[in-house]
Every structure is written in structure tokens, then in C-alpha cells.
């Protein structure tokens, strides 16, 4: 499955990571060019560099990361033919079904092959995956893909409707995974295909609770035991650098200082009003003396002239007050993301208890 | 295969009792499995059996395999007309006394028969709903039935067992969190993996299982002597396969500048007996082995790093990063969010790391019974937090253009 060499060679599959949202697969073909939002890259330039390289574009528009493919990266990058399984479900199902190197596993349907890749990785060369897809075009695409990814020795794909025609496997599978619209129709077939000399396990993947209820009954009727139901999620958390929150004493001090300045200003205003009154009284004397003044001539009236600079000063003061000598280094704070996945599917598990060997 | 097909002498098995409690027992050739009020039986009775069977304890020398429990058929659940309208909550409805039950037991009456006797003496039993009758029977069974299940030691069952027994000791590494770590780190047969495990070896066990007996697992420890991972005992792994994969090194030895103190070989005249000679060669062998493991670490090219440690995560990553291949995943578990948010911020500011992300695994189990399907009334509140990132090789052609 995929190259294990340190450096990239012609024909290798690589994963091009531009951003978290823009991840795509690429097969290296010399002579071709890759045109992206973050620049233009020639395939030939990528040959010989290590997997996992950060590469700058030829036209200086940015850089990308060229990663070694893993089933998880493939899941993020793959061309979706169907709704795919996400990593939280994939890892939990693998663990609960006790899938490990050497396991014989049945999967139906194949879909976009996201889980197939992960299973092939985990069971390794000593295990085997039998995967079934009832949609012909999807089956052919998946088959070609498994071939290209060097999985042909580990994965057998059949184009078949397992609900109708079963698996044509007997007492073989350690684990069965059913991602079908009506898993209850396939449950009896699955029972026949699973081994009985050791514990074997099944998982049915259904988004709706009504499907689960029918599945539970069908599994019980087919002879499965230990039926249970799980939901799993991986809740993403976002980390952002936030200035260390200030103690409330800081707010107390700032507000009290502002209060003090307000009082100071009030006193000044009172003093100024007193002065103005004096001036007015003098002016009044002048008017009485016949000196005429109009607004036009005077421009801005006295009162406004007095306030404007005062406001500017008070802004300066408050700016000064909100940034006193406090150490406020940034700290990485973490919180759950605003919008997260709330549900993927219900995972209905059951098992076949082994029977004692006849002695 | 890494793990055995059947139960053998010397295995450690997990036994689940009717009460739901689990106990780990080491099976000796002649040992007894004692389960308190549920009885006891000879461990050798299990030898050669596959894992996962339920037994009824008939006597200390006799056990009987029980068929697996099926879901009870309640028929049309809407048709249960009974309600608890007329049920009075007092102790007079059960007329069979504790002493009478003990007498029945001593007279050799079976569990099922005792439960039947209790039901027939229960004046209000018929007033109960079908669901409530079922609940009553189950409660009595948990109390009296001598049925035990020998669990298959899978990664999932062992992780659940250790987590339920002492989640603090396991640093809140829940079964689902462990599963995510193993997937995100892309562990597979043949890979070279670095691990820092302060969770009794559960992470080590998980990686060993995914390596399937091939590849290399190098465990970095903070103790002087080689680690003894208690979680490993549950799996009864093939010891030859384990020791061909697993090696350990303490932090002091990871330092290239550090030269461990090797006592000079004693002079020829001081080594007189065979025993002394053996000791000298053993010591030389041990220090050579340590040196080999050091060389292996320094040769680098590791495919993944997994961490569940008491130590500060970023310093661990920084210390071991030189030995990871570019594109290698790093996955760190912590019971606390703070160390991971700090490590995430540091990795994000460092161009040699890509996509550092923190996730909180969430898992909810449901009761799946016809007509009574609902999430469990209580669940685990945390399985810890998982940080993952990918190591990047900053190519010499990279120029940062705005």
C-alpha cells in the first residue's frame, strides 16, 4: 500500500495539502504542472524530495505541503462517490470489532472506499478484506483504485447486492461491517459468513434510530448476542492566543481613576463657568456700549471653542487609563468550535459467542 | 499471531460476574478462581477453551457452558396494559424471607428455581408491567445467578476494564481515545514507532497489537530500569514476538552527548568463579544492548510518535522530533486541555509542523432493547484530549513570500 520510500518518485501518489480545507491527491507524472491557488508547481520538481516536504511555488505565489498518503489523509482528499465514514467512527469501529493485523473482515458496501483503505492498512498483508458494492459503477471505480494503491493482494471486491445474494463466504470473517440502507436484510447472511470457533463481531452503521430498532431485532433473530449501541464523535477544539484576562481590581482602579478625573473636570467646568460669567458681564457692558457682534463674524461660538479641546484631552486621558503598566501576555486558550458535527450514525454492535470445539 | 487462540495455563483472564463487576485472574495449573458470593472453580477447567464463553458454576470442579443470552420477546409492547397505579412501595409484598431463601439454597435449589419461588411469593408481581417484571428478574439474577463470562482480552475490553477500575491511573485514556490515537498515528505492521507511555503500558499494548509482531516499538521511559507494563499482562501476547518488537530506553540515554557510566572490567585475577565470569559477561551484554537501542533511536526514520505522559508534551515532541521521518504523525493524549493548548500554539508557530489540532473524544452508549432503547442514564464525562500534528521537512527551496 503506497510508497514507503523516503523520497518521492515518478508515479507515486502524494497528498497535496494547501490548507485544512484544500487537500487533494496527486499522482506524480513528469511533464505535468499543478496549478493551485497557492502557485504553480511542476511535478518534475517534486521527484526526489522527501515525503512531507514544504515546497515553494515557482511563481512565488505561496507554498504547499506534499505529504505521504495515509488512509486518514486519503479520506480527507478522496473523490467522494458517497457519504463517507469519518475518522471518529472508523477508529472506534476498528477497535470495537477487534480488527488487527491478520483479521479477516467483510465490508458492505464499499462506497467511496474510505473505510476500506483504513481496514487494509490495519489488517496488513496477513489479513484480508472482502468488500461488497451493489452499485456497478462505484464497484468498478473502487476496484481500479484499490489496484492503483497496491491493495489488490489484501482486498477482494465483489459487485453484489449482499441483502439479496449474501456473501458466499462461510464461517470465515472475524468482523463484519455493514453500511447499508437496510442492514437487517443482510444480518442472517452475515451470521453465516462469520466464524464460530472464536468471538466474531459485527457493526451496523445507520443514521436513523428506526433503522437501529429493526437491526437490533434482526440481529437477535439471526442468533447474535451482546447487542449494544454507541455514538462517537471527535469534538474539535480551537486554540486562540488571548491576552491574559485582567483581574477585576484593574477595572476597579480604572473606573475609580475615571471617576476622579470626572470630578476634576467638573471642578474645572465650574471654574470656567464662573470665568465665562465674568466675561459675559463685561461683554454685556460692551453691548450696552454699542459694540455689535454677529455669529458670522465670531465664527465658532465661545462655548464650543471651549469644549472641543477638552474632549480631545479626555480621550487622551482615558486611552492612557486603559493601558496602564500591566503585564498582559498572550496565552493559548482553548474552546470547543462554534459549529460541530452532532451526529454521524448509530453504531449497532453484536457478536457471535464461540462454540466449544467438539472433543 | 501475537495473541493466543485459546485459554492456556499462565494466562491472565478477565472474568465478568453477574453483578457486572470484573476481576482479573492469573490462571495457574492448580489454582482456583474465587469470585466471592458467586462461588469458585478450578481455573484448569478453562484450559483449551476459546475466550468469550459464559459458564454456570455448578461446583468447584464443575462448570457448564451457558448459551448466550437473547433479547426477551415482549410481543407488542404497546399492549402492556399494566401500570404502577396500584403498586404500593413497601416491604410486605415479598413474603419469602432471607432465612427461607438461605434454607432453599442449602437444600440445593437452583438459582432459577429460587427466583421463581420469589416471584410466586411476590403479591404484587402480576401488577408490574412487562418491562418492570423483566427488570425484577434481571436484578434477582445479578444477585443469585452463578454465571460468569471470561472476556476476550481485546484492546477495547482491556481499555474499558482499566478505565472503569481506575481512570485516574489511566490518565483518562478511554477506549475510544486510544482507538483514535492508533488510527491517527497510522500504526501498521512493519512501522517504526516511538512511544511515551505513562498509562501502565496500555498505549504500548495498542501499538504492539497494530504492529502485529513486525516493525519496531521504542518506548522512552523516565525510570532507570526497564519498564514493567502491567496492562500488557492482560493480553497474554507471545513473548518472543513482543521482545522482537519492543525495546525501551530512558530519557538520559536518548541524549547523544551523554556517556553512561560503564564500570571497568574487573582484572583477570578477580574473576575466579564461573558465577563471577557470568556476571561480567551479562553486564557487558546489558550495556551493549542499551547502546544498540540508542543507536537505533539515533538512526531515526521513525514513522510515528504517540504520547500519553505526565511530562510536558511540547518538550517531548521537541526532544524526539529529530528522529521522526517527515510526514510522520505525532499524537498526544492528555487528561487536561491546558498542556495541549500550549503545545498546539507552539507547534502552530513552528514551520516544521503541519495542522496541529486538538480534539475531545466523545462517546455515548445506549441501551438497545426492543421498546426500551435510550442513551445510558450515566456516562463517562471525559476521555481526555488528543493533539495531533504532522512533521514537515522545510525544503531548502522554500522562501517565504508574502
Automatic annotation (TrEMBL), chain A:
PROSITE patterns for the chain: SAM_TRM61
UniProt superkingdom: Eukaryota
Binding site for S-adenosyl-L-methionine: 133, 179
GO CC annotations, alphabetized: nucleus; tRNA (m1A) methyltransferase complex
Catalytic activity: adenosine(58) in tRNA + S-adenosyl-L-methionine = N(1)-methyladenosine(58) in tRNA + S-adenosyl-L-homocysteine + H(+)
Single GO MF descriptor: tRNA (adenine(58)-N1)-methyltransferase activity
Subcellular location: Nucleus
Biased composition regions of type Basic and acidic residues, renumbered to the chain: 259-285
Domain tRNA (adenine(58)-N(1))-methyltransferase catalytic subunit TRM61 C-terminal: 62-351
EC number: 2.1.1.220
Residues covered by region (Disordered): 257-331
InterPro entries per UniProt: SAM-dependent_MTases_sf, TRM61_C, tRNA_MeTrfase_Gcd14
Biological process (GO), any one: tRNA methylation
Keywords of the record: Methyltransferase, Nucleus, S-adenosyl-L-methionine, Transferase, tRNA processing
Major site of localization recorded for this protein: nucleus
PANTHER family: TRNA (ADENINE(58)-N(1))-METHYLTRANSFERASE, TRNA (ADENINE(58)-N(1))-METHYLTRANSFERASE CATALYTIC SUBUNIT TRMT61A
Family: Belongs to the class I-like SAM-binding methyltransferase superfamily. TRM61 family.
Function statement: Catalytic subunit of tRNA (adenine-N(1)-)-methyltransferase, which catalyzes the formation of N(1)-methyladenine at position 58 (m1A58) in initiator methionyl-tRNA.
Annotated protein name in UniProt: tRNA (adenine(58)-N(1))-methyltransferase catalytic subunit TRM61
Organism taxonomic ancestry: Eukaryota, Fungi, Dikarya, Basidiomycota, Agaricomycotina
TrEMBL record, chain B:
Biased composition range(s): Basic and acidic residues: 266-277
Region (Disordered) residue spans: 260-286
GO cellular component, one term: tRNA (m1A) methyltransferase complex
Keyword terms: Nucleus, tRNA processing
DNA damage among keywords: no
SUPFAM superfamilies on file: S-adenosyl-L-methionine-dependent methyltransferases (SSF53335)
Annotated localization: Nucleus
Domain of life: Eukaryota
Main location: nucleus
Alphabetical list of Gene3D superfamilies matching this protein: Vaccinia Virus protein VP39
Any GO BP: tRNA methylation
Family statement drawn from the similarity comment of this UniProt entry: Belongs to the TRM6/GCD10 family.
Name assigned to this protein: tRNA (adenine(58)-N(1))-methyltransferase non-catalytic subunit TRM6
Organism the protein comes from: Exidia glandulosa HHB12029
Amino acid at each position: 500500500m503506497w510508497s514507503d520510500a523516503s523520497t518521492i518518485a515518478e508515479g507515486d501518489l502524494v497528498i497535496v495539502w494547501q490548507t485544512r480545507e484544500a487537500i487533494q491527491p496527486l499522482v506524480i507524472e513528469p511533464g505535468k504542472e499543478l496549478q493551485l491557488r497557492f502557485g504553480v508547481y511542476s511535478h518534475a520538481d517534486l521527484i526526489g524530495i522527501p515525503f512531507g516536504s514544504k515546497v515553494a511555488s515557482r511563481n512565488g505565489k505561496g507554498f504547499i505541503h506534499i505529504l505521504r498518503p495515509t488512509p486518514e489523509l486519503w479520506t480527507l482528499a478522496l473523490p467522494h462517490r458517497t457519504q463517507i465514514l469519518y475518522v471518529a467512527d472508523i477508529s472506534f469501529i476498528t477497535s470495537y470489532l477487534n480488527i488487527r493485523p491478520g483479521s479477516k473482515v467483510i465490508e458492505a458496501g464499499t462506497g467511496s472506499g474510505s473505510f476500506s483503505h483504513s481496514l487494509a492498512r490495519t489488517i496488513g498483508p496477513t489479513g484480508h478484506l472482502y468488500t461488497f458494492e451493489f452499485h456497478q459503477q462505484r464497484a468498478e471505480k473502487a476496484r481500479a483504485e484499490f489496484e492503483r494503491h497496491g491493495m489488490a493482494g489484501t482486498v477482494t471486491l465483489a459487485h453484489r447486492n449482499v441483502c439479496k445474494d449474501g456473501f458466499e463466504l462461510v464461517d470465515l470473517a472475524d468482523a463484519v461491517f455493514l453500511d447499508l440502507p437496510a442492514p437487517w436484510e443482510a444480518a442472517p447472511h452475515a451470521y453465516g459468513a462469520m466464524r464460530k470457533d472464536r468471538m466474531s463481531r459485527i457493526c451496523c452503521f445507520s443514521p436513523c434510530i428506526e433503522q437501529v430498532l429493526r437491526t437490533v431485532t434482526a440481529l437477535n433473530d439471526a442468533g447474535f448476542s451482546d447487542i449494544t449501541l454507541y455514538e462517537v464523535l471527535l469534538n474539535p477544539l480551537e486554540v486562540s492566543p488571548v491576552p491574559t484576562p485582567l483581574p477585576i481590581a484593574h477595572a476597579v482602579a480604572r473606573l475609580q481613576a475615571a471617576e476622579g478625573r470626572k470630578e476634576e473636570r467638573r471642578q474645572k467646568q465650574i471654574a470656567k463657568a464662573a470665568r465665562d460669567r465674568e466675561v459675559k458681564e463685561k461683554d454685556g457692558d460692551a453691548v450696552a456700549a454699542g459694540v455689535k457682534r454677529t455669529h458670522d463674524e465670531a465664527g465658532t461660538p465661545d462655548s464650543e471653542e471651549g469644549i472641543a479641546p477638552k474632549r480631545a484631552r479626555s480621550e487622551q486621558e482615558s486611552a492612557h487609563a486603559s493601558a496602564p503598566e500591566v503585564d498582559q501576555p498572550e496565552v493559548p486558550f482553548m474552546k470547543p468550535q462554534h459549529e460541530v458535527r452532532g451526529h454521524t450514525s448509530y453504531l449497532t454492535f453484536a457478536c457471535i459467542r464461540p462454540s466449544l470445539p467438539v472433543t | 499471531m501475537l495473541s493466543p487462540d485459546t485459554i492456556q495455563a499462565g494466562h491472565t483472564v478477565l472474568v465478568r460476574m453477574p453483578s457486572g463487576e470484573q476481576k482479573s485472574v492469573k490462571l495457574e495449573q492448580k489454582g482456583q478462581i474465587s469470585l466471592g458470593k458467586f462461588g469458585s472453580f478450578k481455573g484448569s477447567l478453562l484450559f483449551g477453551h476459546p475466550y468469550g464463553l459464559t459458564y454456570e458454576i455448578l461446583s468447584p470442579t464443575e462448570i457448564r457452558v451457558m448459551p448466550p443470552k437473547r433479547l426477551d420477546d415482549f410481543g407488542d409492547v404497546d399492549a402492556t396494559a399494566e401500570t404502577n397505579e396500584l403498586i404500593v412501595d413497601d416491604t410486605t409484598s415479598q413474603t419469602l424471607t432471607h432465612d427461607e431463601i438461605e434454607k432453599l439454597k442449602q437444600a440445593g435449589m437452583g438459582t432459577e428455581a429460587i427466583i421463581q419461588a420469589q416471584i410466586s411469593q411476590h403479591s404484587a408481581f402480576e401488577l408490574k408491567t412487562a418491562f418492570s417484571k423483566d427488570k425484577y428478574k434481571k436484578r434477582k439474577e445479578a444477585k443469585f445467578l452463578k454465571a460468569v463470562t471470561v472476556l476476550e482480552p481485546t484492546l477495547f475490553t482491556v481499555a474499558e476494564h482499566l478505565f472503569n477500575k481506575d481512570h485516574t491511573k489511566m490518565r483518562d485514556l478511554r477506549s475510544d481515545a486510544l482507538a483514535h490515537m492508533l488510527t491517527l498515528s497510522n500504526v501498521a505492521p512493519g512501522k517504526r514507532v516511538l512511544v511515551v507511555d505513562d498509562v501502565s503500558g496500555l498505549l504500548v499494548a495498542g501499538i504492539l497489537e497494530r504492529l502485529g509482531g513486525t516493525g519496531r516499538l521504542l518506548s522512552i521511559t523516565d525510570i532507570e530500569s526497564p519498564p514493567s507494563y502491567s496492562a500488557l499482562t492482560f493480553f497474554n501476547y507471545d513473548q518472543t514476538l513482543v521482545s522482537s518488537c519492543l525495546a525501551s530506553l530512558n530519557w538520559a540515554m536518548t541524549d547523544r552527548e551523554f556517556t553512561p557510566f560503564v564500570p571497568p572490567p574487573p582484572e583477570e585475577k578477580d574473576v575466579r568463579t564461573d558465577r563471577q565470569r557470568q556476571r561480567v559477561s551479562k553486564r557487558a551484554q546489558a550495556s551493549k544492548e542499551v547502546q544498540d537501542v540508542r543507536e537505533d533511536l539515533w538512526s531515526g526514520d521513525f514513522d510515528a510518535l504517540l504520547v500519553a505522559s505526565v511530562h510536558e508534551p511540547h518538550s517531548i515532541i521537541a526532544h524526539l522530533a529529530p528522529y521522526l521521518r517527515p510526514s510522520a504523525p505525532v499524537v498526544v493524549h492528555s487528561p487536561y486541555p491546558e498542556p495541549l493548548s500550549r503545545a498546539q500554539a507552539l507547534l502552530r508557530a513552528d514551520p516544521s509542523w503541519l495542522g496541529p489540532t486538538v480534539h475531545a473524544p466523545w462517546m455515548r452508549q445506549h441501551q438497545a432493547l426492543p421498546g426500551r432503547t435510550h442513551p445510558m442514564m450515566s456516562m463517562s464525562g471525559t476521555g481526555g484530549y488528543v493533539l495531533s500534528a504532522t512533521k514537515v521537512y522545510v525544503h531548502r527551496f522554500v522562501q517565504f513570500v508574502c
